[in-house]
Amino acid sequence: xxxxxxxxxxKKANVYFDGKVSSRVVLFADGxxxxxxxxxxxxxxxxxxxxxxMELLAxxxxxxxxxxxxxxxxxxxxxxxxDANVTFRVKVTDFADYxxxxx
Length: 103
Prior knowledge:
Layout: E1 7-9, E2 14-16, E3 21-28, E4 33-39, E5 42-47, E6 52-64, E7 72-75, E8 79-82, E9 87-92, E10 96-102
Antiparallel strand pairs: 1-3, 2-3, 3-4, 4-10, 5-9, 6-7, 6-8, 6-9, 6-10
């Protein structure tokens, strides 16, 4: 899917890590929520409140998932899932354009 139709977008950005990560909330009529975001180069740790499906739309990143010891290299088109109430780490060397779906 390359676009979302008939949605609402929260105007205020979520800004993290001194502005190196930002996202906007997209609200769907069925009550579901996604965020569309952008990461600049850096290493970041995120905590989850609910299950998340992360899709890399453009760029590259490495991900260290909960319970893993090896970083996974990912490129545009790749995705991963994380459970609620965990942390995961992301390393970005250039940039990362992403979509996070909450389930």
